């Protein structure tokens, strides 16, 4: 494909804006503002196409002028992962929305990528159904959840969003529509779908392999009953023993969640800029307007900003049981016996359930390990940090998040990462930097060793050979 250079100067920028407005509509294309950033990297334009064809035209325009494109949903995780090398056009997926019409008993549902997940759940709830997705980011779109492969407590029984995919449609860097999975092909009318394995590589790719258009996922009946059985815990080893006992009791929990607070940790800032940045673009301080825009950014929603717990306070292990009312009550009684006298049962979740332990300005880590080795990973993390840290997440699935205070210098963060990754390497685990202050993100490897890099490189060459989609966002700098 012949590539034209980007029009130079203000007249050239105005021409790109005019062309984007012609594609998306006058009200849906503009120069980017202070809040239009990706992991601290400011965009030049924002385009909000009205459908897949318009989105394809935006990508073709970008290809003609060698402009980079980064998709954005609700922006709840826009500061996650590595910063892209450049962001010319931010492609907002807000108008690629809607829930497909299937019969009420259909086991699948097709959803537009820009649809807020809570709107999908509200629509399905009217038919007594749900998606088994409960990511902690309030207001997240389905596309954003898939692009980050973000999961919540229900991951324990139902797997990640990626694992629940039946079909996927996306646009490659040249604006060509690609369909993966037989059901997606039937719904979209595309006659030659590729394998879903390629489509699943888009999960967690942060927009670096394609622009998601829609996804087809399993839908299930709403559970007749839900109860949470909780027990205070004091150490990772205690959690390990309790989780092992729960698994041995064959209680079929829907979720097994852990909250270990950072006792005695320094106070957190209640408000800080998104991505933890404390300055604007290089060479000038952040203005008050920019600071306010970032502090109120959707990426800050759902993240901890409360003061740390008192020294010596206990953590909590909470287990969700779902199913038929009488059967759930019987399992809850058995679970109370397994957990011991300090356990209790409630018809509602603990206050921390489905929330991240990190706040604005923290370095947020995701630790993944086999459930039997999770306690070793948490001990390694706390030993390397030299202080208790907030840890929260899926103890049953071996996936938790942890918060390093934003006051930790870069070299200390790097040392903690090296120590924890060394422990996890022998246990087939990994530690990823989810979000961090700008200085930390610049200096540390946010991904760590990633065995999937060769497959990602192959997919990148196939779908985005000129590296226009979120360049540098993927592991290995792809």
What do these coordinates show?
Helix 1 runs antiparallel to helix 2 (52-64), helix 8 (236-248) packs antiparallel against helix 11 (374-385) and helix 11 (374-385) packs antiparallel against helix 12. The chain has 478 residues and is of the alpha+beta class. The protein has 14 helices and 20 strands. The strands form five sheets. It has an eight-stranded antiparallel sheet. A four-stranded mixed sheet has the order 1-4-6-5. The protein has a four-stranded antiparallel sheet with strand order 7-11-9-10, sandwiched between helices.
Structural class: alpha+beta
Tally of extended strands?
Answer: 20
Order of the strands making up the biggest sheet = 16-13-15-14-18-19-17-20
Q: What percent of residues adopt helix (DSSP H or I)?
A: 25-40%
List keywords for this structure.
single chain, alpha+beta, 8-stranded antiparallel beta sheet
Topology overview:
Layout: H1 9-24, E1 29-31, E2 37-38, E3 41-42, E4 45-47, H2 52-64, E5 69-72, E6 89-92, E7 108-112, H3 117-125, E8 129-130, H4 142-148, H5 155-158, E9 165-171, E10 177-180, H6 182-188, H7 196-200, E11 211-218, E12 220-221, E13 225-233, H8 236-248, E14 255-260, H9 288-295, E15 315-323, H10 325-339, E16 344-346, E17 363-368, H11 374-385, E18 390-394, E19 399-404, H12 410-425, E20 430-435, H13 438-443, H14 453-463
Parallel strand pairs: 4-6, 5-6
Antiparallel strand pairs: 1-4, 2-3, 7-11, 8-12, 9-10, 9-11, 13-15, 13-16, 14-15, 14-18, 17-19, 17-20, 18-19
């Amino acid at each position: 494909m012949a590539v034209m250079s980007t029009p130079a100067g203000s007249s050239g920028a105005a021409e790109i804006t005019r062309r984007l407005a012609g594609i998306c509509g006058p009200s849906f294309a503009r120069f980017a503002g202070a809040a239009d950033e990706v992991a601290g990297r400011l965009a030049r334009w924002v385009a909000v196409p009205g459908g897949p064809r318009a989105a394809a035209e935006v990508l073709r325009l970008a290809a003609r002028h060698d402009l980079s494109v980064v998709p954005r949903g609700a922006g709840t995780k826009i500061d996650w992962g590595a910063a892209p090398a450049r962001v010319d056009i931010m492609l907002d997926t807000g108008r690629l929305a809607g829930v497909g019409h299937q019969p009420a008993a259909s086991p699948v549902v097709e959803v537009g990528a820009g649809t807020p997940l809570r709107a999908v759940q509200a629509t399905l709830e009217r038919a007594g159904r749900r998606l088994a997705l409960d990511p902690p980011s309030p207001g997240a779109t389905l596309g954003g959840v898939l692009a980050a492969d973000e999961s919540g407590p229900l991951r324990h029984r139902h797997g990640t969003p990626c694992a629940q995919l039946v079909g996927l449609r996306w646009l490659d860097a040249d604006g060509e529509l690609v369909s993966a999975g037989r059901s997606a092909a039937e719904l979209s009318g595309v006659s030659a779908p590729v394998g879903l394995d390629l489509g699943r590589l888009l999960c967690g790719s942060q927009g670096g392999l394609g622009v998601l258009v829609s996804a087809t996922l399993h839908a299930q009946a709403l559970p007749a009953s839900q109860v949470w059985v909780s027990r205070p815990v004091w150490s990772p080893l205690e959690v390990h023993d309790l989780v092992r006992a729960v698994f041995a009791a064959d209680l079929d929990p829907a979720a097994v969640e852990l909250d270990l607070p950072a006792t005695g940790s320094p106070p957190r800032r209640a408000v800080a800029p998104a991505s933890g940045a404390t300055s604007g673009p290089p060479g000038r301080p952040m203005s008050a307007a920019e600071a306010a825009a970032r502090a109120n950014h959707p990426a800050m929603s759902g993240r901890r900003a409360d003061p740390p717990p008192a020294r010596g306070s206990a953590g909590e292990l909470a287990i969700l049981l779902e199913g038929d009312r009488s059967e759930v009550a019987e399992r809850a009684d058995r679970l109370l016996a397994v957990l011991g006298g300090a356990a209790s049962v409630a018809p509602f979740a603990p206050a921390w359930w489905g929330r991240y332990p990190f706040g604005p300005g923290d370095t947020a880590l995701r630790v993944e390990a086999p459930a039997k080795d999770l306690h070793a990973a948490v001990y390694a993390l706390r030993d390397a940090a030299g202080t208790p840290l907030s840890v929260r997440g899926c103890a049953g699935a071996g996936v938790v998040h942890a918060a390093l205070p934003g006051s930790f210098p870069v070299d200390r963060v790097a040392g903690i990462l090296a120590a924890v990754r060394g422990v996890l390497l022998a246990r087939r685990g990994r530690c990823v930097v989810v979000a961090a202050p700008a200085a930390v993100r610049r200096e540390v490897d946010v991904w760590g060793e990633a065995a999937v890099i060769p497959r990602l490189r192959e997919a990148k060459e196939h779908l985005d050979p000129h590296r226009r989609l979120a360049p540098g966002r993927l592991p290995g700098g792809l």
